[in-house]
Each structure stands twice: as C-alpha cells, then as structure tokens.
Specification:
The complex is a heterodimer of chains A (713) and B (289). Chain A is α+β, with helices and mostly antiparallel strands. Chain A folds into 3 domains: 1-29 and 445-507 and 535-552, 2-Layer Sandwich (Aldehyde Oxidoreductase, domain 4), CATH 3.30.365; 31-124 and 181-272, Aldehyde oxidase/xanthine dehydrogenase, molybdopterin binding domain (Aldehyde Oxidoreductase, domain 4); 280-443 and 564-625 and 663-712, Aldehyde Oxidoreductase, domain 4 (2-Layer Sandwich), CATH 3.30.365.10. Chain A has 18 helices and 27 strands. Chain A has a 7-stranded mixed β-sheet, with helices on both faces. Chain B has 11 helices and 14 strands. The chains are: A alpha+beta (713), B alpha+beta (289). The A-B interface holds A 27, 36, 107-108, 111, 264, 266, 268-269, 578, 580-585, 623, 639-640, 642, 644-648, 701-703, 706-707, 710 and B 37-41, 179, 181, 183-189, 191-192, 257, 259-261, 263-264, 267-268, 271, 287, 289.
Amino acid sequence: MPHTAIDDRIVRVDAVKKARGEAPYVADLNFPDMQYAYMVRSSIPRGTIDSISMPELPDGYWFITYKDIPEEGKNELWMIQKDWKCFAENDVKYVGETIGLLVGPDRNMLRYLLDKIEIKYTEQEAAITIDEGLAVKGGPIVGEDNVLCQLFVEKGRPMDEVFKEADSVFEETIETGFQEHVHLETNGAIITIENGKYTFYASAQCPFYIRKAVAGLLGLQPEDIVVKQTTTGGAFGGKEHFPDVLCGPLLVAEHKIKKPIKLIFDREEDMLYSVKRHPSKTTFRTALDKDGNILGIDGVVVYNCGPYLSGSFVVLQRGVFHANGVYDIPNTHVKGIGIATNTFPSDAFRGFGAPQTLYAVETHLEHIAKRFGFDPAEYKSRYFLKQGGETITNGHVVERVVLPEMMKQVVDASDYFRKAKEYAPGSGKGIGISFYNHGGAFTGNGEQSIIKAHARLVKTGERVRIEVGSTEMGQGFQTTLRKIAAATLEIPIENVDYDNPDTSVVPDSGPTAASRSTMIVGRLIERCAEEMKERWAEGDFAVEKEYEHPEGHPWDQNTFRGDAYLGYGWGCCVVELEVDKLTKEVKVTGIWSSHDIGKAIDELIVHGQVNGGIVQSLGYASMEKMENRKGHFRQSSMSDYVIPTSMEFPKQEWFLVDNPYEWGPFGAKGMGELVFNGADAAYIDALERALGIEIHKIPMPPEDIEEALENAQ
Amino acid sequence: MGMTYIPSTLDEALHLRAEKKARPLAGGSDLMVQSKRGIGLAPEFPFDVMIITGLKELKGIRKLDDGSVEIGALSTPAEIADSDLVPWHVRQAASGMGAIALRNSATIGGNIGNASPKGDLPQPLILLDASVVLASIRGERQMLLDDFILGSKKTALGDDEIIKSIVIPDYDFTYLFYRKIGMRKANAISKLSLSVAAVVKDGEIIDFRAASGAAGPRVIRSRDAENLLKGHKTEEIPEIQESFLDSWNNAISPHAMPLYRRNTTRRMLSYFLSAIYSGKAEGIIEEED
C-alpha cells in the first residue's frame, strides 16, 4: 500500500458505512435486560410544583426524581458552573425542565403510564424575550436583575471623548433568532454497569464533559465513570453540554435500578426540549466624521440565555470578541450581557456566539456605507485588520491577513462590482458581500490553563492507533486525524486506527468544539507522529504529548485583555439573489466564497464543510424560524421548522487561500465554524439591495419581507 | 385502542365502516403521523381502523363519457401528476406535494378527507367544481367538494361512508395560473396557494374563477367576486379590477401571516388580470423575470 500524503484525495473512512446504514448509533444498541426511560418534564415556563400524581406503577417500573439522589450527591450538573439542576425540585424555570425519569422494561407501558402522570403547578409570570428578561418581568429569575453573566472590552480612547468629535452618530439595533441544530440523529444515551463502573454509551461531542458533569450526583469522581462515545449523527454544538442533561438523570436511575437503561429522544422532543442558539439583540452606536469615516463604535450585545448558565458566558465572550468583525476600529467599547429568561437554556451552536455579532457588525457597516454612498465592499475593506493590528481585546493579529486577496477572488468570480452598480435598489435583484473570521480554539490561554489537552499514538507492529478524546460527529475528524498521522509517519492511512473514544482508554484531549480539533489536537498528533517516526525502529511503544502554548501571547481572563485567539480563520462571501415580485420568495442565483483556513488537510472534507456551513447560515438568515410563545417553542417538527434542502441553493463557487499557520498541523487552522459565520450577512445585504430597504433582523422568510416592505413605506 | 381491519373488497370495507365505524387508512401520511407515539412504538388509534390500501375498486384514473375525469380515491399524487387525463391545475398541485416518498404513498382521498386548510389537492379541485363520490352500504351519493369540506378538518362524510372517487368536470380554459408558496422549495407544506382560470372569447370574460388555499380554515372560492368579472370585456379590467380584488380580499380570512397572505394573493390575481388585459397568448400565465 502506498504512503498517504497530506494532499491525497481519499475516501472518508466513515463514508461507506454511514451511507449504507451499517454504522450503529446509540438507538441501535441493545443490552440484555435493558430498560427504557422517558423524561417527565415541566409543562410551564415558571412556577412551583404543587403535586405530582402518579398512576400505580407495576412491578419493575420506577419514577426517579431528585429525591433519589443519594445523600453524598448533589442535585447539580457541572458544566461550567453548577447551576443547572439535574432534576427540578420545588420550582421549575422553563418548559421542558426535567422533573423525573420514568423507567421500565416496556415502552408501550411506559407511554401509557406517562400519559397518566398529572403535575399541578402554581404558575408565575414568565420572562421569555430579551426585553422581558431585562425588564425583570415576573420578578428576577437570577440575582436581582436577571444578569447571568456580563463583560466589556474597550480599545482606544474613552468613548465620550470620541462621540464629542463626531459629526454624526448612527445608532441601530439588530436582532437574531433561535436556531435549532437539527442534527440528523436525535439525542440519546444508554447507561449500564461494566467492570463495576457506571458506563455510558452516548451520542456526544465531549465524552469527558459528561463524566465531569454527572459524577457529583452520586458524590463520585469523574474517573469513577466511563463514557463511550457512540457513532454520532451530527451535533453542531447541540451535543456539547446537552448530553449531560440526559446522562445525569440516567446515572441517578442506574444507582437505584442497576440494569442497562436507554433514553432516546424522538424528533419532537429533540426540537421542543433541547438547547438552541442564543437569540441576540445588538445595539451599535457609531461615531462618524463628515465623510462617513468611523471614529468609534459603542456596542451593547445581549444574549438570551434561558434560566441556567450552561455555556452561555463563554458564548457571550466569543460574541463580544467578534463584535468588531474583521475590522480595525480605532475606538471601541462593547458590553455583553447574558440575560436570564424562562426559555429552554440556550447553548453551543456552530459559531458559538460569533455569528450573532458578526452578522450585526457586518450589517451595521453595510448600512453606514450605503448611507454615505459607498459600496459596502469598498467601504469595509478600508478597515480590514492586518497582521500585528490591534484586536478588540487589545491583543494583536498573529498571522498574515490575506483578506484583500480573498476579496479579489470573490468579487472577480462573482463580477460583484459590475452587478452592484447594475442592480438598482428595489429592482428585485441584489448582490451582497460579507467578511468574517473565527478565532480558533479556546479563548485566550484556555487551552493552556483549562484544557491542557493530551493526545497519544500507540504503535503495535506496523499499525498505529490514535488515542484522543476528540469525536467524529460528521465533520470528518476521524479521517482528518488519521491523515495527519499517516502523512507525518509516511505510512498508509489504512494502517492507522482511531476508534470512537472511551474515556477509560484515551487521554483527555479536550472537547470537540471551538474549531480546535484540527488546530490543537491535530498538532498534538503531528508532534506524537514526528517523534514516533524517529523512533520507529524501537518496536512497540506509545508517544503521548501535552499542549504547549506559544510564548509571548499574553491573556488576562479577568480583564479580557490580550490575545484572545492565537489564530483566526478568515472568510469572504458573496451572495446574489432575486426576489419574486408576486410572492416575495427569494431565489439565490449565486454563492461565492473564499476562506483562509491555513491549509486544508483534506480538500474534500473542507469542501463539504464550506458547502454545509454556508447553506446552514443561509437557512439561519432566510427560513429557520423558531418562535417561542409563552415559553413553548412553536415549531416541533421538521415540517414546521424548515432547514434547507438540496433544492434551495445553487452550486457554490469556492476558493481557499494558502496561508500556512505556524502552530497548526501542516499549517492548518480551525474551520468548522468559520464557514458558518458570514453567508447570512451577505444574503441580507443582497436582499436589502433587491428590496431597496434596510433590514434589522434574521430570519427573513417571505412574510417577514412583506412586513419589512410595509414598514419601510 | 381500536382494532385494525384489512378488508379485501369495497363491499367488505363498507360493512366495516357501517358496523364498526372503522376509519379508512390508506397511505397513512396523515393518520400515522397524527397518532404517533414516539420511536420504537407503533401508532395507536383511539378508534377502529381499516387499511384500505389494497382495494382495487378505489384505484385508477379514467375518462367518463361526458368528458369528465374520475380519480379513484386511492390514487397517489405521483399517479395524478403523471396522468395526461388529469387537468393541469390538479397535476401541478400533485407534483408539488411533500417529497417523493410522500407523493408515492399519500392518496387523494386522504388529502380530501383530512380537510387540512393547507392540503394541496382540494384547492385546484374546488376551482374546477370537482365533486366527491361517497359510498356506503346504503348506496352512493355525489356532492361538490366545496360543499363536502365544511371547515378545517371537518367534512360532510357520514360515519358509514368512505370516499370512493373524485370527479372533475371537463373545462377548456383560455388562461390558467397556479402557484404554491411553500416554506421552502421542496418537501414543504403550503404557506399559501392560488389557482386561477378564465375563459375569454372575443374579448369577453365568459368564465372566471379562483381558489385560495391556506388562506383560511378552508379553500376559498367567492362566486360574488368571480361574478364581478364575468360578462365584462377584457378592456374593462382596469376599471373593475380593484373592486374584484377588494371583494376577494374580503373573502379570505387568514389567521397567521395575514398581511403576507392578503398582499401576495392580491398581487397574483392582479398579475393574472393584467395578463388577460394585455392580451397575452392563451395558455399558462407564468411570471416573467
């Protein structure tokens, strides 16, 4: 077999099995004497539980609640903080909050019993929207003012000074909605006991997170619990912390029942009772001189978090750190607020807080450009960050920024400038452009201070096994990482193994999140492989490496100052579209993009990510509407919450630039989230031009376009 | 939980219907979804059900002696879309229903019997004055579909009757228009739909009709509005257009997205009328870029 080179075109290692339906998912796994579990959830957004009336449970059926947590345990899920309870006790804070777990051998009987459970509540007034959360509607959910988390960053001179010098001030508020992950495989987990240890089989991004989150329920240590990731059919962030919410109750149940227990959400449960992307409301106040030059931007970013923190503070930080987009704005003050409400807790979703502010800043700058008669692309390009340029957190851009080159690729291919002139505002045709980035890996020195990732390579004869905690969830990492190892070792990829991680076997290489897997874990495996190659003749041995932080990149997590990220992916996207004059339906006629991801480890996988990320972003901007009325999500199926099909958008033209990154494997940086971060703004820019109006929110399905047109009159 | 029967003849089915009140289940694309109980569990119905998928008497599409077309209740959207016998509006609606799998399993009888305001087929059928043939052990009766569907999820179906077929009279229109606005381009439930047809002879509007789907609790036709146009010369359209559009607007009653549904319907009707007025070539009126 030939050696695998990094630029070889190869077939994804998991492609055939998954396409044939042969890959077993957690729902396909069965164990002897396995029990099934159903969640009993709160049906009101806020209130106290007066009574739970249970039908008589037949032998072998259980109703598990917080009362079943043993004395040595605590009713909390340890995500980043420990505020999210495993089971509601006396009060409930959102629709869908776990009250109990109904467990037994027969699903028919469980379903029957489930319908007979009656819970009585005393309802309290709930706060659902950002504005209601800020107004402390119904009294505080958290603290005195519902502020779950907050931070600010500042750059340059004091803002009151800057605003005094302004010839004009432009202020606007831009909003984004909920977004549901719609991973093909719904959430699910099985708990059992193997070798005397509680063992989970879970569809999850971060097996080590589960251990940490649930151990305290029984007063155990994370090491006392084993998590085996099962083949995961999509996640997009929806399986980062959320599996903890399934696994916690399962662990408490297992403590009593001691039999394998399976909990699988059906699609409706997965839509109604799972985490979503944070809705946001961003207000920018921008000081301008008489020629339309930006003197400074003052911003307030508010994210709707739901009642528990989960990952929200980290999401909010990333949102704030991306609030200047790809631009070097001389003076900036941005405040971020995570507000508590009585919606299902919001959590990670591809982009992790960055898409909301990037969409807002792109749209804001585009509005300024148009007001002063500039072409948005030309106007925005004046402010492009450059290598060494100061970031919003007073850090510096480490790598060479090739945005001008990327912009040229995309505007040339799309004939942007000609079309931008030719399509009159309101003509029904429009072309739009956006620029965006995504900081790779954990913020600041998080990789060094919090994660301390490890990775291991084990050589047995001619075969090499990768041992990492990173997971394949459809993004192609099992192929990417094998390729890095094989190409470094100069062996065929067929000789490299990489199984779904088992926390009792592999070292913790950190969560599979934050576009860090290729950049951080890939680099660790590259380093392992470099050493292994030198020692190849030694026989069978293992090499393990720990993350090393590049010198000279200060970060203060208390003040949020310094180099927030050690490298960014960069992107530029153009979208062209037509609006149907009769129906206001939008037909996208062209999509062009260019991305700087350092280096593509596997171009086919990258192509898939670019296509998928852009389509997902266009869905976010155009059709993916998730409404919440009185605490209940209104969309509960894939026919009322619509995501794009292959018919929606045309073939994309895409470019990559070669810009190797110093600390990534073969020069690669993170890219999984980057490709989601900007097509929405290009779409809305094009739509605004086609309609001749300004738009201040997403998503914009035809009925919202109708309303915007009506309001603009 | 109800019993499930599988009759092998129509006669057997009619007896089950009369004696057990068993509800017909054909493609299952509505009933199975409405009664789903989550993964790993079969749907459970609180009433008796009979699976009628195999009944030959309810299948097939044929031309009748008077020129009308009879579509068996078990005909699938895929069969309807493919049939040259079926009028254009109905074929359009059938070809845009759901995804391919649904178009191969759903049935016209089910789509009518379910009487969802968002159902795709009732709208063009009502435009075409289609009637429904209802069978029971007492015999058969035929009524206009527009009378059969009483409201959202409500029909005039007797508790001993099943839908046997749909009969569409023969019409020859000068101008035709059909549009379904889904939530996306494929595999989508209708957000709004409209069919329009007109007969124009020597500059006179002999017949004019329109039907709106998903714009109220049931498919809307307004004879009052239609009559405002009938008998007029096409050159008079600019003078009577507004009163027609207002009349139509008063006939529809959308709860959700009222602005969008009203304005879009208005724009589509107005576009169709302008096309007639400007003396466009006969046939299907399509939007131009």
